[in-house]
Amino acid sequence: MNVFRSLALGLTALLGVSQAAVAQEKFELTFSTYLPPSYEYVWKPVENFVKTVEEKSGGRVKIKVFHSGQLFGGYEELQALSRGNIDITNMTGTYPSGTVPALGVFILPFLFEDVGHLQRALKAGLLDLGVAQELRDKHDVVVLGVSAFDPYVFYSRRAPITGPKDFKGKIWATTGAADARAIQLLGGSPTSMASSDLYLSFDRGVIDGTPRPLLTGIGRSLYEVVKHVSLVNFALDTSILAINRKTWDRLPKDLQTIITEAAAKRDEEQFDRVKAYITEAIAKYEERGVKVQRLDAAAVAELRQATKPAVDEWVQTVPDGQKYLDVIKQTKGQ
User: pTM for the whole thing?
Assistant: First the structure.
């Protein structure tokens, strides 16, 4: 009996040591984003996410952050995350939309009324209609959270954008297939371009305009190379915080919970910062001599009608595409 008791006690002690070792296992994760710290309403929430995870985990998780495309550019982040070259990223939704067409919903023209509308649609399960599952099953990517950029507006180098006629014969830098198609329908010539290339392209006359958030213009100093900004909710892109699935599966459940809760706080903080930023950004453009054009309802209606085929075509190419539009419609004006 004493022998068996001794063996049992030894086994219990061994298991206890093993469990303690697992509990104290440390993880060093690589976080990569193409965005620079000057994109404050995206960068600050990311900083706070990292700080929260490291503190709440008691140092068991250490996250090393690389910004400004030090490791990968915006168009490369999904593939890098999928391969496991990085552990976490903060993808701009439209960049990987060529690989995951459903992500193009955020850059379809004139679907969202404002940032609050996008927030309601996401809470109503917009990404749960297939995007999140496709990212997990086909790309080994787990979505931790989703927040917003401020609305896409029109930047133009020479003349203001007031209606469809102002797009014709001009070269436009776009981010994904959906916004490129909309520009094409308006008579412009789209060319895919990362935000880091916009300044030189405007300065050298390579492009005439681009649909981008106000943040892009401030963060990339576009006010130095464009003369006009036309305010209109052309599209509302997303900031998708995501982790490699294999990395995620290696983490103990308690650390997964800490990361999930920190991601939710990041989402809310970024939404709050975006809403406050819009008014501030417009004032900054005006201070720097950029002429700000506010499109009226009639002009927006004309633009929406001209670009409607882009929405119809997207619905036909994406499984359950109409369900996405139904959620967006149901969450309008609440």
Answer: 0.84
